[in-house]
Amino acid sequence: MANWTDGPEYAPLDRPSAFETPAAEPLEVPPVVANPAAGAPVAQPDWQPPQAPVQPLAELVPRSGVEPRDPRAEFSTVGSAVSAGSAWGSAHSAAGTLQRPGWTPDQPLSTSAPVGAAAAAGTGSPAAPAAGPAFPPPTTAPSFPAPTTAPSYPAPTSVAGFPPPTGPAAGGFPQPGTPDWFAPPPQQHWQSPDQTVTIAQMWNGATPGVIIPLIIGALINPLSIVMLAVASLLAARVKYRLRQVRRLFAWTGGILAAIAVLSLLGSDFEFDNVWSVLSGWAQVACWVLPIVILFQVGAGIRANEPPQRPY
Q1: Where is average pLDDT lowest: 89-98, 124-133, 167-176?
Q2: pLDDT value for 287
Q3: How confident is the model over 31-64, as pLDDT tens digits?
Q4: 105 contacts: CB under 8 Å, gap ≥ 6
Q5: pLDDT exceeding 70 applies to what percent of the chain?
Q6: How many CB atoms lie within 10 A of CB 142?
């Protein structure tokens, strides 16, 4: 059975009159634990030097006999027996430094003793040949006579009784030696490809959903406002010059809204008169917009613009 220990919702409704001692055994008394700080001095002790003489700390560390190394000094490399006579060993020998190696590629490799030294040592090798006669260095630079006249080339002559060539050679280049050979190349003007736009392409680019409602609004005056609104909603399916087409419908809607406000103010808020006036102006817009939209789409096709809606 649930009681008050399971939550406040199970608490008794009536307050108890007195506390009753539970019918349970008393708890065990924990054993006494010794205090580790018992007997410690109350005041903090002051440090005092040793009363008797002691051995210095420096004498307690055994000396290894090696001089300590300066940590700011660079490490020096020593060539081994394997790489002592090679380029790598010469470059990394103890004689070289980080800024100036002991051997560079423009120095010869010392792999053997000179021939003269070997002969002097009695090895039986032939001595080095004697040096050749020494010549004095040149005192002045050699001079060459300057050309007096420009080189002339013979004009092309006729071969086998034919006149000299005057037209362009094979490949469209002029003949050497002719005036056209020294003339600047002719300027070629880029011509745009002939892009013919048909009515069917403009009709498909403007989509029938935009042109057909405008044609209906241009023929039927009471439906001109409704058809103009339908064409403006379907203008999002135009494939070329979509931004310009939307701008046309936005300008048309703004002009019609201004005409509606002026008509309401001028006719004492007679809605029938305002509707007839707006229908007339909307019918005029339905006549003009198809022509402008078709020309805009045709210009986009002629300019090879990618369709904004390829489907």
Answers
A1: 124-133
A2: 92
A3: 999 888 888 888 888 888 888 888 888 788 777 7
A4: 87
A5: 64
A6: 5
CA 36 from centroid of its chain's CA atoms: 70
The amino acid occupying position 242 is L
Residues 6+ apart with CB under 8 A from 79: 89, 90, 92, 93, 94
Establish how many alpha carbons lie within 13 A of residue 274's alpha carbon, considering only the half-sphere containing its beta carbon: 16
Ordered by start, the domain boundaries in the chain are 199-302
**pTM of the full predicted structure?**
0.38
pLDDT at 42: 85
**To 10 degrees, what angle do helices 271-302 and 242-266 make?**
160
Phi-psi region of 27 (alpha: psi -120 to 50; beta: other; left: phi over 0): beta
CA dihedral 104, 106, 111, 114 (to 10 degrees): -130
Average pLDDT in the chain = 75
With contact defined as beta carbons under 8 Å apart, do 155 and 177 qualify? yes
Please tell me which residue, 112 or 261, carries the higher pLDDT value: 261
Taken in order 82, 84, 86, 90, the sign of the CA dihedral is positive
The letter for the amino acid at 257 is A
- Overall average pLDDT of the 136-160 stretch: 63
Closest CA to 261 of 252, 249, 251, 271: 271
The packing angle between helices 271-302 and 224-233, to 10°, is 40
The three state secondary structure string of 237-296 is HCCCCHHHHHHHHHHHHHHHHHHHHHHHHHCCCCHHHHHHHHHHHHHHHHHHHHHHHHHH
Would you say the C-alpha torsion 283, 285, 286, 291 has a positive or negative sign? positive
